[in-house]
Write a structure and sequence with these properties.
Helix content is 38%, strand content 22%. Strands 2-3-1-4-5-6 form a six-stranded mixed β-sheet, with helices on both faces. A three-stranded mixed β-sheet has the order 7-8-9. It binds guanosine-5'-diphosphate and magnesium ion.
């Protein structure tokens, strides 16, 4: 190890960051912007993110493990309560809390509820005023003041950013990095996510495969989510036609299994697909367009390198 490496290692910082904010402020979009890849499902429909997702951003100075929490809103029903519990849990577990506000609207009840949740929080908190691109320059300062005076402690650091075009995101990362404790890499540097959402989606398909084919298809079936595109428009260009498009491949080991899975005239795959789609819509709380493919990969289970070769390294 040379001197330079030693220095870098000694000063490296790492830690967990909770991104919190009321639904739709742009948490998931910001996560994707920060790590530079789509790791979190975002949507114009609130409440897309139901499970916790960790996104990882590694820079030469620091590693940020970002926990994208379900949007916080006042609990009206059990699910809402669970989401709030989960967000509360994330706040307690992390090294730093980043609260996201939406600059395109004034502070509201939802934001106040979050500030309330933060009371008694010992870890550092910083604020990001997102969607700066939606606010006229001349008006931005006034909006910033509005949010600042709404904070219990107006000297808390507040940054402005746009998760859509990336403005202000570097400064945000710089500042977050400086607030993390000294520590080693927690994940490999090239890892951007632990991808629980993708895995969940894959599990919903696998569940339907097993349920509908019973013993005919052994449990060796694997499902890989190839793509998630939440801005897919089906038919005419209207927001009513906006869907999350999910492309997935079911891997089997033998040709006969592929035949069973597809069924007569594609009937089995249709049954599996529509049942999985209904579950997915519940999971992401919005319309889903699902495309399923079946692929024969002999002995895929015994050959992780073969899977990687095919581009299936997520499982
Ligand atoms: P979340 O519920 O907080 O995770 O919000 P999402 O990340 O799903 O974003 C909600 C909506 O706001 C989506 O339609 C995003 O495209 C949009 N959005 C998020 N960040 C920005 C931003 O910085 N600027 C603009 N114009 N839109 C944004
Ligand atoms: Mg989200």
């Amino acid at each position: 190890m040379n001197k330079h490496e030693h220095f870098a290692k000694k000063d490296f910082r790492s830690g967990f960051i909770a991104l919190i904010g009321r639904p739709n402020v742009g948490k998931s979009t910001l996560v994707n912007q920060l790590v530079g890849e789509k790791v979190s499902i975002t949507s114009p429909v609130a409440q897309t993110t139901r499970n916790r997702l960790r996104a990882i951003l590694t820079t030469p100075k620091a590693q940020l493990v970002i926990v994208d929490t379900p949007g916080i809103h006042k609990p009206h029903h059990l699910l809402g309560k669970r989401l709030v519990q989960s967000a509360r849990g994330s706040i307690a577990e992390v090294d730093l809390v980043v609260v996201i506000f939406d600059a395109s609207s004034p502070p509201g009840k939802g934001d106040a509820f979050i500030i309330e949740l933060l009371k008694g929080q010992k870890n550092p908190v910083l604020f990001a005023l997102n969607k700066s691109d939606l606010v006229e320059n001349s008006y931005f300062e006034a909006r910033e003041k509005e949010y600042r005076s709404f904070l219990p402690n107006p000297s808390w650091p507040m940054f402005s950013c746009s998760a859509i075009n990336g403005n202000g995101c570097n400064q945000l990362v710089e500042h977050i990095s400086g607030l993390l404790p000294l520590g080693p890499h927690l994940y490999p540097s090239n890892m951007v996510s632990d991808q629980p959402e993708k895995i969940l989606l894959a599990e919903l398909i696998r569940e339907q495969v097993l349920f509908n084919t019973r013993e005919e298809i052994p449990h060796s079936v694997a499902v890989v989510i190839d793509r998630v595109d939440e801005n897919f428009v089906k038919g005419g260009k209207s927001s009513q036609n906006l869907r999350t498009a999910i492309l997935a491949t079911v891997l089997v080991e033998r040709k006969t299994q592929k035949g069973i899975l597809i069924g007569k005239g594609g009937s089995m795959l249709k049954v599996i697909g529509s049942a999985a789609r209904i579950q997915m819509q519940k999971l992401i709380n919005g319309p889903v367009h699902l495309e399923l493919f079946v692929k024969v990969v002999p002995n895929w289970r015994k050959s992780p390198s073969r899977l990687a070769e095919l581009g299936y390294d997520g499982q």
